[in-house]
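ok, trying the design again with the full structure, not the truncated one.
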């Protein structure tokens, strides 16, 4: 069974998935960022972003950061 994200933030075609990982150093959250697009009848994901995606990407990442911080997650060293 594939691991599922514990939370997702979406603005239009921009999606940020938040993943939970337990490590030797403690609990961690990681994110993956994708842009959804249609290829005929199929929905696909890309990790490439255009100029018009950037503001939505920033907003989605900001909300993902806020959600992670609200969970009391241990953040990785800066």
């Amino acid at each position: 069974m594939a691991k599922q994200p514990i939370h997702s933030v979406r603005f239009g075609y921009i999606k940020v998935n938040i993943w939970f990982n337990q490590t030797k150093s403690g609990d961690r959250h990681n994110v993956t960022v994708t842009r959804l697009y249609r290829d005929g009848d199929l929905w696909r994901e890309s990790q490439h972003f255009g100029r018009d995606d950037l503001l939505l990407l920033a907003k989605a990442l900001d909300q993902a950061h806020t959600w992670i911080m609200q969970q009391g997650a241990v953040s990785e060293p800066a």
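Keeping the full-length input from now on. Strands lie at 7-11, 14-23, 26-39, 42-46.
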